[in-house]
Amino acid sequence: MVFVIIDAVVYNNGDAYIWVDVGYFSIIDSEGHEYASGGCVLPYIEAFKSTSIAPGRSNSGKVVFVVLDIAEDLAVSYLLSGAPPVLAVWDLGL
Prior knowledge:
Elements: E1 2-11, E2 18-20, E3 25-28, E4 34-36, E5 51-53, E6 58-67, E7 75-80, E8 86-91
Antiparallel strand pairs: 1-6, 2-5, 3-4, 3-7, 7-8
């Protein structure tokens, strides 16, 4: 197992408060295995905190995952709440 640590920034460009949660992040590998962030916190990093974000504001911090050391082609995803919900996915190049 290895740690994968990402820098995350969520910006609210809407006109109402939005809720962001570290638990909405996950990583998917090429085999389809999904790794939840699980709220893993390391003492020496500034962790992404779950909070409500005002319009025009942002929230940032590091999100930590524990991933199989043989995992390949990792992509991070974030489930954006709303109606309908939206799943955003970014390739990590790992």
